[in-house]
Design goal:
- Helix 3 runs antiparallel to helix 10.
- This protein is an alpha/beta fold.
- The chain has 2 domains: 301 residues, Aminopeptidase, CATH 3.40.630.10; 203 residues, 3-Layer(bba) Sandwich (Glucose Oxidase, domain 1), CATH 3.50.30.30.
- The chain has a 17-stranded mixed β-sheet that branches.
- Strand 3 and strand 4 form a beta hairpin.
- It contains 16 helices and 21 strands.
- It is 32% helix and 23% strand.
Length: 555
């Protein structure tokens, strides 16, 4: 891993400019902050309780969440962050497909029908009352990637306007055991994310886009897709009703995909192997797809919650902490446990905002301002953070950098720390000393193919050039080692992630979570008391955006 020593030197030189007494006090505060565990536990438990109904935007759970965060931010000593208000309105449209639509695939030998939830899930980004996809020609488009800079175009040579495209999840080289390859090898790029695949299908003019679910390259099971893609779906209200989007977006199970392709005389494994080689061309299947459903449409404003601790000497420069407060709400109606409480994801991260705010407010006032931003609708596609990044309350060219907290480590203390997207920004030069002081090893992501860098709210800010850190304690547990850590992570992904069993557990071991918050506090305090403006590494995809932003601000 390489580090930009110029950026690090600038940071530590600025810290050295403090008086010895100031530097001593700040270093002590940075290395041993008092993270209020009682606050962290209490707020997590309350947010994850059934009373909050899974914290879905636009529900009574949102009202309770916003009220709780506003009250807690005020209690610990923050000021309202949006011109005297604790909140920022985020315009959303909620689209709910009624009933259980069928997917009919017709070929030379007749039609086969696929069942909702069991075989496929689908909805529409278009805010219109009726969706009808009728006899749309089906095309297999490999990984659905159009990347001219990499010499790759899965749509080349075929006009897919009005057609239904069948797409593989992840990148072509996700099975690599290294990080070398046309798409980052084992590490997922944005081209591997489902969000990109729908965006590109829409740009190509497709009528429908269906992603083939496979657990390993998706990094989650079909249960996650089923819970996330059924019920009300939220989208940014762009004033156009999603007219530039595909008519239908959805997923099919691997078994359903095999049957669809077999009816076309094709084999999923053979087509996948072809799609992983440069020069792949889309494959018309000789099949047509049909489905339809009615939509209930509701426009609403959800809310981001914003608190600020004004800086002592440079209050117009900002350090940002983010976490998403929302979850999936009522996700399993008709069962004994219908609420997706989202205790780890992300009541823990939201509570961490309050705990960190309390720690900062009780310490010496930093030179720069600290902003605590709880965003909405992350589970619907990072909508709250995307809206803030496009409509910032505090200018992004005056935002030094930030830390995103999405699901704290509740497995216990670890010997290692995992940074998602390691090697991307100079913020790592501030993180490294904090890890070294705790004898922590920075380890590679255990599942780089999952593309976590593109799956949480830091990505919305990165796209606008703001350097962001996103990490957590690793899997090498102090008690139990790697075997225990990996087993805990696997159990969470398989049995609790995005499901009703992600509930508050009074027996959690909070030591790892508190240790991680100490690190986040130290990094934020170092940045807040420095004059450095960290950037992305040379050659990183976000570097040019940050360069332009800093140049426009005269830096």
């Amino acid at each position: 891993m390489r580090f930009n020593m110029i950026g690090a030197a600038a940071l530590f030189a600025s810290l050295a400019a403090c008086t010895p007494a100031q530097q001593s006090a700040r270093t002590a505060g940075a290395s041993a902050p008092q993270i209020p565990l009682a606050t962290l536990q209490r707020v997590t438990e309350e947010l994850a309780s059934d009373a909050f109904e899974g914290r879905a935007p636009g529900t009574p759970g949102e009202e309770k969440t916003v009220e709780l965060l506003s009250r807690e931010f005020a209690r610990v000593g923050l000021q309202p962050g949006n011109n005297g208000s604790w909140t920022q309105d985020v315009p959303l449209v909620e689209i709910s497909a009624r009933g259980a639509p069928k997917l009919e695939v017709r070929g030379p030998n007749g039609a086969r029908t696929y069942d909702f939830r069991t075989d496929f899930v689908a909805g529409s980004y278009r805010a219109q009352p009726r969706i009808d996809l009728r006899d749309s020609e089906m095309v297999f488009v490999g990984y659905g990637i159009n990347a001219p800079e990499r010499g790759w175009n899965d749509y080349e040579g075929l006009d897919v306007r009005g057609k239904t495209v069948l797409i593989l999840v992840n990148d072509p080289d996700w099975q690599s055991q290294t990080l070398d390859g046309p798409f980052g090898g084992r590490a997922m790029t944005y081209y591997g994310r489902w969000t990109y695949k729908y965006e590109e299908a829409a740009r190509q003019g497709a009528a429908a886009a269906l992603i083939i679910h496979q657990t390993e390259p998706a990094s989650y099971g079909w249960n996650v897709v089923e819970n996330s893609w059924t019920g009300p779906q939220l989208f940014m209200d762009d004033g156009r009703g999603g007219a530039d989007q595909t008519l239908v977006n959805g997923w099919v199970t691997q078994d359903a995909a095999r049957r669809i392709l077999a009816d076309a005389g094709q084999d999923l494994a053979a087509l996948t192997a072809r799609a992983q080689r440069q020069g792949f061309r889309p494959v018309p299947l000789g099949l047509t797809a049909s489905t339809g459903f009615d939509n209930d449409i509701r426009r609403q404003a959800s809310r981001n919650v914003i608190g600020i601790l004004p800086g002592r000497t440079r209050p117009d420069e900002y350090i940002l902490y983010t976490a998403h407060w929302d979850h999936l709400g009522i996700c399993a109606e008709g069962t004994d446990n219908p609420i997706c409480n989202g205790a780890i994801d992300n009541a823990t991260g939201t509570a961490a905002l309050v705990a960190l705010a309390e720690a900062f407010a009780k310490g010496p006032r930093p030179d720069r301002s600290i902003v605590f931003l709880a965003v909405t609708a992350e589970e619907s596609g990072l909508l709250g953070s995307a809206y803030y990044a496009a409509n910032p309350v505090f200018p992004l060219h005056r935002t030094v950098g930030g830390i995103n907290m999405d699901s704290l480590n509740m497995a216990g203390n670890t010997r290692d720390f995992v940074l998602i997207g390691a090697g991307k920004s100079e913020l790592e030069d501030v993180l490294q000393p904090a890890l070294a002081r705790r004898n922590l090893v920075l380890t590679p992501e255990p599942s780089p193919e999952a593309g976590y860098f593109y799956r949480s709210d830091h990505f919305s800010f990165a796209k606008q050039g703001v350097p962001m850190l996103y990490g957590r304690g690793g899997e090498d547990l102090v008690v139990g080692g790697l075997e225990a850590g990996r087993a805990w992570a696997a159990d969470y992904r398989a049995n609790r992630y995005h499901g009703p069993r992600d509930e508050f557990d009074p027996n959690w071991d909070w030591s790892g979570a508190v240790r991680d918050l100490e690190i986040y506090h130290e990094v934020g305090l170092q940045l807040a008391n420095s004059s450095a403006w960290p950037n992305w590494r040379e050659g990183d995809e976000f570097r040019a955006i940050r360069d332009r932003s800093l140049a426009a601000a005269g830096r």
